[in-house]
TrEMBL record:
<keyword id="KW-0732">Signal</keyword>
<dbReference type="GO" id="GO:0015889">
    <property type="term" value="P:cobalamin transport"/>
</dbReference>
<dbReference type="Pfam" id="PF14478">
    <property type="entry name" value="DUF4430"/>
</dbReference>
<feature type="domain" description="Transcobalamin-like C-terminal">
    <location>
        <begin position="82"/>
        <end position="143"/>
    </location>
</feature>
<dbReference type="InterPro" id="IPR051588">
    <property type="entry name" value="Cobalamin_Transport"/>
</dbReference>
<feature type="signal peptide">
    <location>
        <begin position="1"/>
        <end position="22"/>
    </location>
</feature>
<dbReference type="InterPro" id="IPR027954">
    <property type="entry name" value="Transcobalamin-like_C"/>
</dbReference>
<dbReference type="GO" id="GO:0031419">
    <property type="term" value="F:cobalamin binding"/>
</dbReference>
<protein>
    <recommendedName>
        <fullName>Transcobalamin-like C-terminal domain-containing protein</fullName>
    </recommendedName>
</protein>
<dbReference type="GO" id="GO:0005615">
    <property type="term" value="C:extracellular space"/>
</dbReference>
Amino acid sequence: MSLIMASFLSTALLLLVPGILTEKEHGSNPINLTIVNSIADAPNETYSTDIVYRGILLGAMRRLHQTNADFNDHCSSRFTYTENFNYGPFLESVNGVAGNNAEHTYWELLVQTGKNGSVIRPDVGIGCYIPEPNDHIILNFTKW
């Protein structure tokens, strides 16, 4: 009986002490997000935000939308996306500019890494990409 009681108390203790069964909180990491329209002659817009440790880009974009008055246009959403059943979130529009299949335009996700400054095209989208600290996220409106 005492073995069962000791096992029960050990399990209860693990549940009551924060952080024992969960990954240690590492705070937040800074990232920059730049909106580029390669088709129109529009000025680039750059925003800074923080992302939680191992957080996804979509979460950082939502946070930026909620906390930054310049990014949060009260008339409309600064970005829209749809959920694809197979592939997850798909970025549709930024600043009211939407991709168009007939015109072969879309929003491309690029990342200038904070490690060595190279620009990469991640093999995942905004719902799966996990930015590293000091990454520079580039949402580029372009043609295919």
